[in-house]
Specification:
The complex is a heterodimer of chains A (about 110) and B (about 110).
Chain A lengths: L2 E3 L3 E5 L4 E8 L3 E9 L6 E6 L3 E5 L2 E6 L4 E6 L8 E9 L5 E3 L3 E6 L1
Parallel strand pairs in A: 2-11
Antiparallel strand pairs in A: 1-3, 3-8, 4-5, 4-9, 6-7, 7-8, 9-10, 9-11
Chain B lengths: L4 E3 L2 E4 L5 E6 L6 E7 L6 E7 L2 E5 L6 E5 L5 E5 L8 E8 L6 E2 L3 E5 L1
Parallel strand pairs in B: 2-11
Antiparallel strand pairs in B: 1-3, 3-8, 4-5, 4-9, 5-6, 7-8, 9-10, 9-11
Chain lengths: ~110, ~110
């Protein structure tokens, strides 16, 4: 079957760095995306990796290793507003279908 | 520039009824995907529409059907509603593979 595994919950303090891991098992894998969703809100796009390596976008970075079927999202200089759910999502070739993980709930403490 | 808009925002239906949800994609986007999100879970892919055709479908029964219009807007129809269909239904539009823009969703409650 097709699935993505990510931790259900992570807690970190303001100003710290946190890494959210994601392992995937999908057919026709093309790329890995990350989305943020606040309670009651819509998912918003954060980052995308189609090639191995690190992609940096401000305080957020994402990494992909295709040979390990593994990726992670790195959040630096955590802020209280970063408290949200984070989803990894695998898209197939052509981007016709995207499978989401169950999400990681991040709690940022003062 | 309006983002993805969905209507209605909330809906209550009775078991066995039919429902139609609507989505207008972000300006310039030609691809629309629909997702079902249960509370505390990730979005589950229902199907994707491109050029008025269903391009790919997830593991949902035939009770779930859709349509895309020439202006790229889309509808999701669910027949013979079950209690388990209660969820947040999200529409996402995209122009390129890697980034999808989501609407605020329609909260469907089946009683």
């Amino acid at each position: 079957g097709q699935s993505l595994e990510q931790p259900s919950e992570v807690t970190a303090v303001e100003g710290a760095i946190v890494q959210i891991n994601c392992t995937y098992q999908t057919s026709g894998f093309y790329g890995l995306s990350w989305y943020q969703q606040h309670d009651g809100g819509a998912p918003t796009f954060l980052s995308y990796n189609a090639l191995d390596g690190l992609e940096e976008t401000g305080r957020f970075s994402s990494f992909l290793s295709r040979s390990d079927s593994y990726g992670y999202l790195l959040l630096q200089e955590l802020q209280m507003k970063d408290s949200a759910s984070y989803f990894c999502a695998a898209s197939n070739t052509g981007g016709f279908k995207t499978i989401f993980g169950a999400g990681t709930r991040l709690f940022v403490k003062a | 520039d309006a983002g993805v808009t969905q209507s209605p925002t909330h809906l209550i239906k009775t078991r066995g009824q039919q429902v139609t949800l609507r989505c207008s994609p972000k300006s310039g986007h030609d691809t629309v995907s629909w997702y079902q999100q249960a509370l505390g879970q990730g979005p589950q892919f229902i199907f994707q529409y491109y050029e008025e055709e269903e391009r790919q479908r997830g593991n949902f029964p035939d009770r779930f059907s859709g349509h895309q219009f020439p202006n790229y807007s889309s509808e999701l129809n669910v027949n013979a509603l079950l209690l388990g269909d209660s969820a947040l239904y999200l529409c996402a539009s995209s122009l390129v593979t890697e980034e999808a823009f989501f609407g605020q969703g329609t909260r469907l409650t089946v009683v």
